[in-house]
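Example for tutorial group B:
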């Protein structure tokens, strides 16, 4: 893999991981177009980059969890920690069972095209739900569990983890910003598990041999992901989700026209 290809894939990962447009869909499309073979450790680097970005952006929330544990000498007193725990369980359990099936049968352009359109329409329906909660403190363990169950759908390429969890949050009555914050926080344990799984599958010798280009990918994905999160959180209540919905429908339609 050249540095130009690494830059392109890293930029796509960083930009699309937290936007409701599916990073996996874009990486599959671009990789097929460029004729790139899957690179497990480079995938690890990209996921680590986006993980560091979201953890750093929400560091005050994570420090709040840590302070709660130290102060109360218990992991059970932090509501946010319990929310993140219950939200990631369904995806981790189902993902461990279905990962081979998904990689073998669902990573296709047709699946990506279909899910890109279908879950764009789901997001459109979710935006019609009336908002009655505008603060993360108003969310409940039940909200987190429901969003976690829905997050399992993101195992299918093209669905978009952020897109489907934000949609669930909107259906639950959260406003754009609160649903997005909850979705991004939920990504921390989920992306961590993905990165660990990919790292376990990677040959350590390959890691050493390709260290520089993978470090480059990690840095680029981190930088772009961080600024993407910041801009998205700042302006989502103003711009809404319609631009992303339109983009998803146009992208999915274009893919169907190409492959049919």
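The residue assignment follows.
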């Amino acid at each position: 893999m050249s540095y130009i290809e690494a830059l392109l894939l890293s930029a796509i990962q960083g930009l699309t991981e937290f936007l409701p447009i599916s990073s996996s869909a874009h990486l599959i499309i671009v990789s097929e177009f460029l004729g790139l073979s899957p690179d497990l450790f480079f995938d690890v680097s990209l996921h680590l980059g986006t993980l560091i970005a979201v953890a750093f952006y929400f560091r005050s929330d994570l420090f709040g969890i840590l302070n709660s544990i130290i102060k109360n000498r218990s992991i059970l007193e932090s509501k946010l920690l319990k929310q993140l725990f219950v939200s990631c369980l369904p995806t981790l359990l189902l993902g461990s069972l279905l990962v081979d099936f998904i990689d073998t049968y669902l990573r296709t352009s047709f699946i990506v095209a279909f899910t890109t359109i279908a879950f764009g329409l789901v997001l459109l329906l979710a935006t019609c739900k009336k908002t009655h909660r505008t603060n993360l403190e108003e969310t409940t363990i039940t909200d987190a569990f429901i969003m976690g169950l829905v997050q399992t759908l993101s195992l299918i390429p093209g669905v978009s983890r952020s897109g489907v969890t934000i949609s669930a949050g909107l259906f639950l009555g959260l406003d754009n910003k609160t649903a997005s914050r909850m979705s991004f926080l939920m990504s921390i344990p989920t992306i961590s598990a993905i990165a660990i799984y990919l790292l376990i599958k990677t040959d350590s010798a390959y890691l050493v041999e390709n260290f520089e280009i993978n470090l480059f990918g990690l840095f680029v994905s981190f930088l772009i992901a961080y600024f993407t999160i910041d801009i998205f959180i700042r302006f989502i209540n103003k711009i809404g989700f319609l631009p992303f919905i339109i983009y998803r429908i146009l992208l999915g339609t274009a893919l169907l026209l190409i492959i049919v």
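The chain has one domain: 3-259. Compare this with the pattern of hydrophobic and polar residues in the output above.
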